[in-house]
Amino acid sequence: MTPKDTLSKGDLRRKYLTLRGALGAQAESLGLAAQTRLTEHPVFAGASCLMVYLPFRGEVPTDEIVRTALTAGKTVTAPVTSKPERRLVPYRFGGRAGELREGAYGILEPDPARCEPFPAKELDLVVVPGVAFDAVGGRLGYGGGYYDRFLALEAFRAARAALAFDVQVSKVPLPRGLRDQLMDYVFTEDRLIDCLGGR
């Protein structure tokens, strides 16, 4: 039987956010390595339409993914957070100046006045942020459930690729609720974790 982490979700969030924050100046180069690992993988090559998160509070950046995808002619979207509906809405953007604004929770997002909504069911790949991940695709988010609902109900046909620093990968399974969605892949600066194979 595989041991599980006995810390509460709140304690785990504090633990992994501290580890991520301690990376300091090396986070930029580590983040670029994680992004490159994803853009060189077949799941990225095979995706025509993808959604990326826009980084917040020390998350792995996604700018290289966006640049590579746009250069390859892919459709790139990012989520606009609707707090009243507690949901994510993908909006297409093209990397041009003035397309982004600060949205809910202080996170950058496409400006609906300048960008068009995109049907979630047409996404091939969703690049997912998180606080921590494990080898079978378990994900610890920030507690709002936005990505879990989005992946379960709207982008259910899309592949799920998590981006993380290696310090965010738990050696034991993370606690998981019934509504918590599993990742297909976790990409870090050091490795690819194929969660589908691990399951």
Helix content: 25-40%
Cα distance, first to last residue? 14 Å
Strand order of the largest sheet: 6-3-2-1-7-10-11-12
Biggest β-sheet strands, sense, barrel: 8 strands, mixed
Ranges where pLDDT stays below 50 over 5 or more residues in a row are none
H-E string: HHHEHEEEEEEEEHEEEH
**Secondary structure tally, helices:** 6
Structural class: alpha/beta
Could you tell me the number of beta strands? 12
Task: Provide structural commentary.
The longest helix is centred in the N-terminal third of the chain and has 13 residues, at 9-21. With 199 residues, the chain is an alpha/beta fold. 26% of the residues lie in helices and 22% in strands. The two termini are 14 Å apart. The strands form three sheets. Strands 6-3-2-1-7-10-11-12 form an eight-stranded mixed β-sheet. A two-stranded antiparallel ribbon has the order 4-5. It has a two-stranded antiparallel ribbon with strand order 8-9. The protein has helices at 9-21, 27-39, 42-45, 63-71, 146-153, 195-198, and strands at 49-51, 75-82, 87-92, 100-102, 108-110, 116-117, 125-128, 132-133, 139-140, 159-163, 185-187, 192-194. It has six helices and twelve strands. It is globular. 36% of the residues are buried.
